[in-house]
Every structure is written in C-alpha cells, then in structure tokens.
UniProtKB/TrEMBL annotation:
UniProt lineage: Bacteria, Bacillati, Actinomycetota, Actinomycetes, Pseudonocardiales
Record-annotated membrane-spanning stretches: 233-253, 398-418, 424-440
Name of the featured protein: DUF2207 domain-containing protein
Record organism: Actinosynnema mirum (strain ATCC 29888 / DSM 43827 / JCM 3225 / NBRC 14064 / NCIMB 13271 / NRRL B-12336 / IMRU 3971 / 101)
Superkingdom of this protein's organism: Bacteria
Predicted membrane protein YciQ-like C-terminal domain: residues covered: 282-502
Record keywords: Membrane, Signal, Transmembrane, Transmembrane helix
C-alpha cells in the first residue's frame, strides 16, 4: 500500500473520532432533553389553582431492573423554632408503582417504566408582605440518583420571581437553570441529584391571586405536642360526635321519663271498693313505699327505709309506741314471713335482729344499724319488678369507673405524647371524654317502659295524697285508708299535709300506741313527725344511704 493511501485512511479515522467526540459532547449539553440510559428522570409540572391548592403532576421514568422509592416529609423545619406543615391529598398513580400520603409524609414506590403521579398540596401558599410566596419541594427524598429533572410552573397570574435551590437539604446552591418565561409559565432544570438531595422551588405572585393557606407550628417542646394538627382536629371532631351521640341517646331514654314527669296525669285508682262496699287503699302497680322512692330518684335513701318501717307497722309486723317525750320503742309483733319482699325482711332484721323483741330508738342510735343488705336488696327488687333494666347503683358505678379509667388513660397518653413530641392534644381529648363519661354516669340508669309508666302513676298517687281527706272515705274505713296511705305520704314528702287532713278524725290506730290517748288523731299528728325525725337520724348514722334531710 502506498504512503498516500495510508495518509488517506488515517485522515478518515481521525475524522470519525472527531465526529464521535462532538456527538458525545452534544448529548452532554444542558439543553439535552433525554436522560442518560440507565438513569431515573423526573419531569414535574406544578399548577397553582385559584383556591390555593397546588396541583402536581410528576412523570418519573425508571430504568429496567430498578425500583425507585421516594419519601417526602410533610413537616419542614423553617428555623426560628417553627415548622411548616403541608397536606397532600388526591394521590393517584398511572403506571407501574404506588403512591400514598399520610399526615406525616408522601411516599412513592415506582418500578421500571414510566409512571405519572398526581396529587394536590395544601399549605404551599404563604403571605410575605404584599406578595404571595408559593413553596414546594417537587423533587426530594429519592433513594436513587436522579439524572435529569425538568420543572414547569403555571399560575393564575405571571410569577414575579422564581427561586430554585438544589442539593442537600440545607444547601443554598441554585438549580442549573431557572427562568420566569413568558406569560404565566416558568421553568427550571437540574441535571443530577444524588440520593436524598432535593429541589426547593419558591415563586412569588401578586397578592390576591390565591388565598394563603400556609400552616406553621412550633418545631418542638410542649407547644408542638399540643399544636392543632389534622389528627388532633379529627380527634376533636370524633369526640364531639361521640358526645353528641351519647347526649342524644340519653335524651331519648330520659325523654320518656321527662314526659312521664311533665305530661298530663291520667286517672290513678288509689281507693278501690270491694263487693261489700268497703273502701281500701291500693298502690299503683303494687309498688311498696320503699320502692316508690327508688323508682322516682334511682337511689335508696334513708326516707325509703323509714317509710318501709312505718309500712311494716301498719301491716301488723311491728308495733310503735312513744316512751316519754323523747324516745320511741319498736316492738316485734309478728315474725317476718314469706309475704315480705327481700328488702322488707332486711329492714325488719336491721331494727329487730334475731333474739330481740323490742328496742328503743335511743338504743339503736348507740348500737348502730347495718343497712348495706337493705340497700342491695332494694336495688335488686326494682330490677326484678322490671322497673329498671339493671341495678341503678351498679350502672352508675360501672360508667363512673369507665369514665375515670378513660380519663387516666388519656392523662397517661398526654404525658407520653408530650415527652415524645407526639400529638398530646389527642390525649387531652381522651381525658375530656373520660371526664364527660364519669360526670354523665349519674344519668345512666335507664328505667324500662314499665318503670316510666309507674313514674307517671306515682304523680297520680302524690296528687291523691295532696288532695284527699276524711270526707272521701267512709267513716268505717278511714283508719285503714289513713294508715295504709301514710307510708306513701312519708316517702313522697306529703306527711305534713296528710296528718293535717286527718288530725281531727276520731279513731284509734291498731299499730301505734302512746301513754295518753285523746280519742282522735290530733296528738298523733303532732307527735308522729318526731318519731320520723328520730328514726331518720338513727338510719342516717349507718352511712350506707343518702339522707335527704
């Protein structure tokens, strides 16, 4: 081969090398539109809506054989002990991958291929003097290198300024390129980002273009723990709904009782006549004096036991007599038998234990009485008679302890969250819920429909005690009607009126004795309230029951 031919081939080779070098340089120029083979590329389009939301479209290309993950915190430190809170909604993915947003972060997991992720950002618009600043990190938190980033911004009005920072989270290095562009659009580019690096984009707008919606919170300590956050606001809403639901339920259940207490009272037949024309007293639904008080106020009170003791005397189980001017004696007349209810037998035993046939009230005062069994039996009795679905005392106690336990749990959660910087306000929500439950426990016992019906009938019984007199009862039956009605007058607070109505009636009581008889009930009406006060005082010392006096 001649030297000339060799020189020609060498020239061709040098030309080929030069062309290849030039082509490679052209591919590496910033103005190139494609990513290098085997690299991740991201094209992000941001559009500010007039309602202040920032709509984001992120087109991500992941090479074959790779999986790319992104985790973007939605709480960003702003300095000065302040954090900025963002909220991401309406997350969707078109392509091989998934994306989701929680209260704390936005997360992608994308596989090989092209994926389009769309979402809306709230909290990106902040006021800065007379202008608005829109801020977002469109690219950040990736666990792989990003070789090519292209950003575009559209706003209702042309942006007045644009700032694009890239690199590590605290870096202030500018992006490779950022320009306002023409019309409403702006653009920015960045060639490469290492894993964990970010692009922080801020653009300024004229005030009034969109409503500001930026949310800031203390960056740490108690202020941050007790800050209003979406989770704490949700908790407050849920608590409000639960309290409203509970109040509605109580209103429905208690409304039946309110209607029984406030509505018109139908006829209640208290005085009934037998075939021979004799008149007798008959309580509504067969309710006994002690049961009346418990059904009305849902508690076993001292007056309920006092009325029961008087009723036992009227029914010939006990004898009551005055001893001097300051004391009273209770005497066993007939043994407690199966005709008595459980709580009546306990009242009988509390006054006259086995082996004791008579006792002075002064002796009872010094000896003391135990009414725990009376209380328990009376509560059980009103349930057995289907006036309450459950024992009122157990129902109150259950809900009270449930409320206290919930409040204690809330206090513990508050302390833990405050120490760990979590949503301590949610713990306070639980404390309030527990306190409300404990406070509302007093209204938890619910009467049955039969109990509510009895409540209305008791109003009729009180009306009878308040209006009836000797002229309403045949003379032959006055002693029986007066005596059988008296325990109900005691428990319903009509004693004074009932005694005054029959004070001049000439009759002797078969269950009550006194040293001096006057032939009518005048002295009895004067002295009997003293016996009731004395017995109330003795029973109140037991400490098991409420005293209404």
């Amino acid at each position: 081969m001649s030297a000339a031919v060799l020189r020609n081939w060498a020239a061709v080779a040098l030309c080929f090398v030069a062309l290849c070098s030039a082509a490679g340089a052209a591919v590496a120029q910033p103005g190139s539109t494609g990513a290098l083979p085997g690299s991740v590329a991201s094209e992000v389009r941001l559009k500010l809506e007039r309602d202040g939301a920032l709509s984001v479209t992120d087109v991500v290309t992941v090479p074959d054989g790779m999986t790319a993950q992104r985790v973007l915190p939605l709480r960003v430190a702003m300095g000065g002990d302040r954090d900025r809170l963002f909220q991401v909604t309406d997350v969707a993915v078109d392509g091989p991958g998934t994306a989701e947003a929680t209260e704390d972060e936005l997360r992608y997991t994308l596989r090989a291929g092209a994926s389009t992720v769309t979402y809306r950002v709230l909290g990106a618009v902040a006021e800065s003097g007379d202008v608005l600043e829109v801020r977002w990190r469109p690219v950040s938190g990736w666990d792989v290198p990003i070789d090519k980033v292209a950003l575009s911004v559209i706003a209702p009005e042309p942006p007045r300024s644009i700032t694009c920072l890239s690199g590590p989270p605290e870096s202030s290095a500018p992006c490779t390129g950022a320009e306002l562009g023409d019309g409403r659009g702006s653009r920015a580019t960045e060639l490469t980002l290492a894993p964990g690096e970010r692009i922080d984009l801020t653009f300024g707008l004229e005030g009034g273009v969109a409503p500001p919606n930026a949310v800031f919170a203390a960056s740490g300590g108690l202020a941050a723990a007790f800050a209003l956050t979406p989770s704490s606001i949700t908790g407050l809403v849920v608590l409000s709904l639960l309290l409203a639901g509970g109040a509605t339920l109580l209103w429905v259940l208690r409304g039946r009782d309110a209607r029984a207490l406030e509505g018109a009272v139908g006829p209640v037949e208290v005085l009934v006549a037998d075939a021979q024309g004799r008149v007798a007293f008959a309580s509504p639904d067969g309710v006994l004096p002690g049961q009346v008080g418990t059904v009305v106020d849902e508690h076993v009170d001292v007056v309920d036991v006092t009325a029961t003791a008087v009723d036992l005397a009227v029914r010939n189980y006990l004898w009551i007599e005055e001893v001097g001017d300051v004391d009273w004696r209770v005497v066993r007349r007939n043994p407690a038998d199966a005709a008595l209810s459980g709580y009546e037998r306990e009242v009988y035993r509390a006054l006259l234990p086995d082996g004791v046939d008579a006792v002075l009230l002064s002796e009872l005062r010094s000896r003391g009485v135990d009414l725990a069994a009376v209380r328990s039996e009376l509560y059980a009795d009103v349930v057995a008679r289907d006036w309450f679905a459950r024992r009122p005392d157990a129902e109150r106690t259950l809900w009270w302890w449930a409320g206290v336990g919930l409040a204690v749990l809330g206090a513990a959660l508050t302390a833990v969250f405050a120490l760990l910087g979590g949503p301590a306000l949610l713990g306070l929500v639980v404390v309030v819920a527990g306190g409300a439950l404990a406070w509302g426990s007093r209204w938890m016992p619910a009467r049955t429909s039969r109990g509510s019906a009895l409540l209305a009938q008791v109003r009729g019984l009180r009306g009878y005690l308040h209006a009836a007199g000797p002229s309403d009862v045949p003379e032959a039956d006055r002693q029986v009607v007066f005596s059988r009605s008296l325990p109900y007058a005691v428990v319903l607070g009509e004693t004074e009126r009932w005694l005054a109505a029959f004070a001049g009636t000439r009759t002797e009581l078969h269950w009550f004795g006194e040293e001096r008889r006057t032939g009518d009930l005048t002295r009895f009406a004067q002295r009997f309230p003293g016996f009731l006060r004395a017995l109330d005082g003795v029973l109140a010392q037991a400490g098991h029951l409420r005293s209404l006096g």
